[in-house]
């Protein structure tokens, strides 16, 4: 006899409660038993809806990533500040110390996903492509073509993720922020890349 298919609404409520709990209490060891008790559920129901503790962790990361992308979309379309200032706002958001536990979990599961671990591979879906649009939108506001903006957006994502990993490894927030500032300051106030960078010209 097989278990009934999980109801999407119940699963989403459990995930929302789990993310809220983690946001308030941090990741810690995240025992399924303690987590279930805290959100008024049971380990059995968490396994029923998510399959395993590891798969639940992946869903937590994906949920937080969705929230961050929505925040970035709001920043990208805000009517205040220059495009470069909006990139700085994004960096400040990502490096908020409150996000450090999420960032550690993100990179831990990212490593497992690229190794092909079955519980983590779902994390790769949209891991880059879903981020390009909100970031590329900022570069389009600098007057770049959509293709060029996507290229610069991809670069910005790679730079930010690399610096975030170094921040977690070293704890040197000042050095990483200076490095990111060096990246964004390569765009003049009008948004165009400086010629000294020798980046490909925007061919429209």
UniProtKB/TrEMBL annotation:
Keywords: DNA-binding, Transcription, Transcription regulation. SUPFAM superfamilies: Homeodomain-like (SSF46689), Tetracyclin repressor-like, C-terminal domain (SSF48498). Residues 8-68 form the HTH tetR-type domain. The lineage of its organism: Bacteria, Bacillati, Actinomycetota, Actinomycetes, Streptosporangiales. It holds the Pfam family TetR_N. Residues 31-50 bind DNA. InterPro entries: Homeodomain-like_sf, HTH-type_TetR-like_transc_reg, HTH_TetR, Tet_transcr_reg_TetR-rel_C_sf. GO terms for molecular function: DNA-binding transcription factor activity; transcription cis-regulatory region binding. This is DNA-binding transcriptional regulator, AcrR family. Gene3D superfamilies: Tetracycline Repressor, domain 2. It comes from Nonomuraea jiangxiensis.
């Amino acid at each position: 006899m097989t278990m009934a298919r999980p109801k999407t609404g119940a699963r989403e409520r459990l995930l929302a409660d789990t993310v809220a709990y983690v946001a308030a209490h941090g990741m810690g060891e995240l025992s399924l038993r303690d987590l279930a008790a805290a959100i008024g559920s049971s380990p059995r129901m968490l396994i029923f809806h998510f399959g395993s503790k590891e798969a639940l962790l992946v869903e937590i990361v994906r949920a937080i990533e969705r929230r961050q992308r929505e925040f970035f979309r709001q920043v990208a379309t805000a009517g205040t500040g220059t495009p470069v200032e909006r990139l700085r706002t994004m960096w400040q958001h990502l490096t908020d110390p409150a996000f450090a536990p999420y960032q550690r979990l993100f990179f831990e599961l990212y490593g497992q996903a690229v190794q092909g671990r079955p519980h983590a591979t779902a994390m790769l879906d949209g891991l880059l492509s879903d981020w390009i649009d909100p970031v590329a939108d900022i570069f389009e506001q600098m007057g770049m073509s959509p293709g060029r903006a996507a290229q610069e957006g991809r670069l910005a994502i790679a730079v930010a993720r690399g610096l975030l990993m170094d921040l977690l490894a070293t704890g040197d927030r000042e050095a990483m922020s200076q490095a990111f500032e060096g990246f964004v300051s390569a765009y003049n106030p009008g948004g165009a890349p400086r010629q000294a960078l020798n980046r490909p010209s925007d061919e429209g």
